[in-house]
Every structure is written in structure tokens, then in C-alpha cells.
Amino acid sequence: MTTTKIKLRLLLLFLFATLVSATGFILIRKTLSAHEEKQRVASQISQMPNKLPFLALDKMSYSHPGQKTFIFHFHPDCEHCSYEAKAIQTNINAFGAAQLIWISEADAPTIRKFAKVNKLENLPNIHWMTDTASVFRQVFGSSAVPAVLIYDENGKLLKNYRGETKPSALLKYLNNESETGR
User: Fold this and answer.
1) DSSP per-residue codes, the chain
2) pLDDT at residue 74 above 70?
3) Contacts of 11 (CB under 8 A, 6+ apart)
4) pTM, whole model, 2 decimals?
5) Which pLDDT belongs to residue 80?
6) For the chain, which terminal residue's Cβ has fewer other Cβ atoms within 10 angstroms, N or C?
7) pLDDT of residue 144 exceeding 60
């Protein structure tokens, strides 16, 4: 074998090793970044923000001492979101001791129509907000719909559901069954 062929093979081997090393480094860095982001979000949502950065469609207070808060992320065109809203409406009396905040990226008229269709409008413990700036993901770490975040009376995160959630699962947190193991 000639020296030129040996040098060419060594160069190709070096380039291959460099490419594999660079790819490995990039994958490890992305994995670490994703893990750090997950931890940041978990820490961030562990306490309910004092003020939600969304436009309220009604007058509301963010601080309800002694009252649990359920934050629903939804979209009016989502079938699962509609099912969840209808299920909440059917069990609305059971949720009377909690604050229910519904947040969507949809515009105000579309949200109001959703509230009316699902018979959840003008109830004192239900509030509607629009996220036209699309910041829900930055605040709560995910933009999945439907999603429900449940906070206790002190604003501490109890549960973060992704996907359609039955009222019975939500009511466990309202009735402290999740905390007592019942």
C-alpha cells in the first residue's frame, strides 16, 4: 500500500472520529439542556404565580386564601376540552369551593362562546383568560391541551395533568383524598 493511501485512510478515520465525537457532544449537550429546562419549569410551576400574565375576560382576584385553584389550559375547538368542560359543568356544585381559571390562546369572543355553550359563563368561581401572546408554555412549561394544574390553598402545585381528565380525578384534590391516601 502506498503512503498516500495510508495517509488518506488515516485522514478519513480522523474525520470520522471527529464527526462521531462532535455528534456525541451535541446530543449530550441537548440532553443536559432539556433536563435543566425541565427542572427550571418544575421549580417555576411548583408555586402558582402571584399574577398570571394573561388577559382576564372578567374581574378576578388571583389570591384566594383557603381556596384551591384549578388552571385549565384549553382550546375551544378541542373535543377533549369540550368533554372536560361539560363534565365540570355537570359536577359544578362539587367545585364550588375552588377557583377555576380557564386559559386559551383563542380570542375573547371564541372563549366566551365556549363558556356559554358549556354553561360555564357568569359563575362566580370560574374565570376566563386569553393567552393571545402564547406565553402559557413559558409560564407553565407545556402548551398541551387540555391540561389541568391544581394548586392548594397556599398556591403550591398539587398535580399537573396533561390530557383529558375526569372530574373524579380532580375532585380527589378538592376533597383532600389525594393527600390522605383515600
Assistant:
1) --HHHHHHHHHHHHHHHHHHHHHHHHHHHHHHHHHHHHHHHHHHHTB--SS-SSEESS---S--TT-EEEEEE--TT-HHHHHHHHHHHHTGGGGTTEEEEEEESS-HHHHHHHHHHTT-TT-TTEEEEE-TT--HHHHHS---SSEEEEE-TTSBEEEEEES---HHHHHHHHTTHHHHT-
2) yes
3) none
4) 0.72
5) 94
6) N
7) yes
